[in-house]
Amino acid sequence: MLEFTHPYLEDNVSDTIPAGDSPRLAIATPLNPRRRGIIIGASDGLGAELARLLAREGYTLALLARRKELLDSLSAEINRTSNEQHAFAYPHNVAEYDKVPDLLRKIVSDLGGLDLVIFLAGVNYPPGGIDKYNFENDRKMIEVNLIGAMAWLHPISEMFQSAKAGQIVGIGSVAGDRGRVGNPGYNTSKAGLATYLEALRNRLTRHGVNVLTVKPGFLKTEMLKAAQGPTPFAIPPEKAAEDILKAIKKRKQVIYTASIWRWIMLAIQHTPSFIFRRLSF
Amino acid sequence: MSKVITTMSLPLSTFAQLENFGHSLKASSYRICIKKTEDIWEAFELAKKLGLKVTARGTGISYNDVSLNGGGILLDMSGMNQLLEWDSSSGVIRCESGVTLQQLWRCVEPEGWWPPVVSGTMKTTLGGCLSTNIHGKNNFQVGPIGEHVLEFTAMLANGALITCSPKENSDLFHAMISGLGMLGIFTSITLKMKRIHSGLLSVDAWHVPNLNRHLSDICENAPHYDYIVGWLDTTARGDSLGRGQIHAARQLEEGEDPNPQKTMQLDYQHLPDRLFGVMPKSLLHYFMNPFVNNLGMWGINTARYVAGLRRHTFRQSHAEFHFLLDYIPNWERSFGRGGLIQYQSFLPKETAEDAWREMIGISHQRGLPSYLGVTKRHRPDKFLLTHAVDGFSLALDFKVTDKNRATLSRMLQDFDNIVVKAGGRLYFAKNSETSAEVARTFLGEDTIGRFKELKKRCDPDGLLESDLYRRVFG
Questions:
Q1: Which domains, from first to last, does chain A contain?
Q2: CA–CA separation, B174 vs B133, rounded Å?
Q3: Rounded Cα–Cα distance for residues A213 and A216 (Å)
Q4: pTM over 0.95
Q5: Contacts of B405 in chain A (CB under 8 A)
Q6: 8 Å CB contact of A112 and B405
């Protein structure tokens, strides 16, 4: 079995909310407006790049991930470069669903509102071969990638729907566009997430809320190590973060990054099953 | 696995995105509708349990963040709007704090009374009026609204109801009025109305060719009138800088109006909702939008000045004279997506002219002219966070766009320095950019210390906090 330990699955970090008084942040004024965002899964890779980019855009951010040290150093870095309190760190395991309501309320209070939520917490834990099955791994992927998203995006959708404003971004994957032989659990979790986001989009667009599904191809991050076989068109996470920011500004609905994946996946989606089931990728 | 809880005890459906009057600032909060005094207490308890801050909001038409509380609980007081007792022989009225000025004047006017102090819009609630201690065009004669409050009741953060009057709990009376809702939440307010003998005012209108004449005319004429207000052409330069038009009004004496029963009828005070009897005024702001830019507003200001060159006297209903901001519904929408902000400075009469000359000059130099300027005459008062001085105020409206935010912000910081250096003050119902440092300078350490001390006494755990409080006193 291919051993791969993803950061979100480490069990040796505490999940406590930072103690003491919430730090004060600069207040938004009409001439110094601040949008407020939550990034769930922010400690490294794409999440960290998005955090850096959005902070530069003037966002005040709540950064969530399991690894406290990484989160702390990332938020310290962001606050140091911007000279202002732009980032707040909240160690959190998305599979601990019952902690979400209290943590969400605390974050919204600390940030002074909420405009944008990016859910990119995700784990990829392959079964280790096209003839291997590993229920534990699959369950963990569903728990984090799909149910974790629901635990966060349900209450957030309700808030945004009621406020008639807000933007939700979910990071799916090209892997969710087709069930393949290599990693059924991961495909399922990302396909489920994409369908879930589509359903949210259909519910929320009429209330003025934008839901963006991002489907990255290969990114040059930790998660790339989990991929089996070749990784064509891999792009650095900085590039993907820029694509996502552009899509947020344009209030897009679905994007692929790198954009070439839109055409690749179009071809793959339209490959007839009698061919597809004979392929081994 | 433990039980999954996905709903909070505070319904998420109360989450609402709220704005300031100018639509230039947005903040999302949990909005709780208050119908009666006990509701406030329940909201306090809920907030304490959840670790959230609380701010009261009336109709939400302040220009800044005084009634915003991003991420916290907002008490929507507009539903607590009963007129409790009205004695038409003495002119004393007791109302709940969500009663609007509109409700108030519509109740008292037909019986020969008028609210002693009103704002430029009738949509404000009494609770909001007291929290910011509003003034009217008669500030130099009668002071702010707080001077006409006989008594009020407010709920403190611990749930206790406290009654204050100029004699009873006098320190809290003078601090909670002007206290920005940070010491307690007003529940009921007793006010003394002013006698009127007609539904009309006699208005004199004349033009003033420059800033010097503008201010000296207001100063010299004010004692002979009940109300005085100046419109200032913010786009005029050079020798004409500060030119404008003065409207001064006096109440009619008994007998001057041949038919007061008729003019005091509500129908007579009604603001027409159609232009030329045809076009609904609620649509007007769409047609104004193309003109709300530097060139268009130069044209409108100049045209207005030229149109007002002839000195004339006319009679106008109270509602028409006072509630100019309600004349065109949603006019603030014409400022576009970025909305508008207002910068109102209060300056002593000795320094006002030089300071405003400098400020208006800077706005022209930087290509950021104000689109509307309004001047008033003021006198000092005894309330703790007072904005009044023995002098004048100038309110300037600015359009906010994505492009001008940074330069406008720098310009307003320069304005702040000019105002503070000239011994002036800024107003917490209007100015949205005032920093804690600037506030400390014009309020003084003593005043802020006194306010914080009362805050500690009334709200030791800091339950009441608005975005403005965090910005200015945080």
A1: 31-276 (3.40.50.720)
A2: 10
A3: 10
A4: no
A5: 30-33
A6: no
